[in-house]
């Protein structure tokens, strides 16, 4: 069962690995990120960062789309993490069944607009997220389970 989806440029780190995973009671983390998928060193680091006893998969967007039906029907409690708005957009628009996406952390770049303390979106990322919204998926920002959840208005 897919419990939550989140964009976080840091992928699996303290907040995700422990706070969110524990809050969600996740038994599997699935990272969908083209860059991480092609980097064996990063995959090893992600594996070391995850909590003990939690399974981890790292897929490219293409590979995740091929496995989308299987991912949706896993018996695990699944937490999906995207590293970029682009990867999230390609996956969610390719498999438009999700109800909401937590935009948890996107770094400041040239031409980016600040939406929260840790969410900065450039025009391309705004377009990616609008495509996700067009599938009926609600976008919200929430750093931690204990912090306020705010709808992302583009």
Please state the CA-atom Rg, rounded to the nearest Å: 14 Å
Helix content range of the residues, please? 25-40%
Low-confidence stretches: none
Instruction: Quote the CATH topology.
Output: Fructose Permease
Separate helix tally: 7
Query: How many domains is the backbone divided into?
Result: 1
What is the CA–CA distance across the termini? 29 Å
Strand runs, count: 9
Largest sheet: 7 strands, mixed
The run of helices and strands is EHEHHEHHEHEEEHEE
User: What's the level 1 CATH class?
Assistant: Alpha Beta
> What share of the residues does DSSP label as strand, in percent?
15-25%
SSE layout and pairing:
Blueprint: E1 2-8, H1 14-24, E2 28-32, H2 34-37, H3 40-49, E3 55-59, H4 61-66, H5 68-72, E4 78-82, H6 85-94, E5 100-105, E6 113-114, E7 120-121, H7 123-133, E8 138-141, E9 150-151
Parallel strand pairs: 1-4, 1-5, 2-3, 2-4, 5-8
Antiparallel strand pairs: 6-7, 8-9
Helix pairs in contact: 6-7
Key structural traits:
154 residues; alpha/beta; Fructose Permease; two-stranded antiparallel ribbon; globular
How is this structure best summarized?
Helices cover 37% and strands 25% of the residues. It is of the alpha/beta class and 154 residues long.
Tell me what the structure shows:
The N and C termini lie far apart (29 Å). A hairpin with an 8-residue loop joins strand 8 and strand 9 (150-151). This protein has 7 helices and 9 strands, in the order βαβααβααβαβββαββ. The longest helix is centred in the N-terminal third of the chain and has 11 residues, at 14-24. The model has no long low-confidence stretch (mean pLDDT 96). It has a 7-stranded mixed β-sheet with strand order 3-2-4-1-5-8-9, with helices on both faces. Strands 6-7 form a two-stranded antiparallel sheet. It is of the alpha/beta class and 154 residues long. The chain has a single domain (2-151), classed as Phosphotransferase system, sorbose subfamily IIB component (Fructose Permease), CATH 3.40.35.10.
């Amino acid at each position: 069962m897919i419990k939550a989806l989140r964009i976080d440029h840091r992928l699996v780190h303290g907040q995700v690995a422990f706070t969110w995973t524990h809050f969600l009671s996740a038994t599997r983390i699935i990272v969908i990120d083209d860059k991480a998928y092609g980097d064996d060193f990063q995959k090893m680091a992600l594996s070391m960062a995850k909590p003990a006893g939690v399974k981890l998969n790292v897929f490219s967007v293409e590979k995740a789309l091929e496995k989308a039906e299987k991912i949706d029907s896993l018996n695990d409690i699944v937490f999906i993490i995207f590293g970029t708005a682009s990867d999230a957009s390609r996956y969610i628009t390719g498999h438009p069944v999700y109800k909401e996406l937590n935009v948890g952390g996107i770094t400041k770049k040239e031409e980016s607009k600040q939406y929260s303390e840790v969410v900065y979106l450039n025009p391309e990322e705004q377009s990616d997220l609008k495509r996700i919204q067009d599938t009926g998926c609600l976008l919200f920002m929430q750093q931690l389970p204990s912090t306020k959840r705010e709808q992302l208005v583009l």
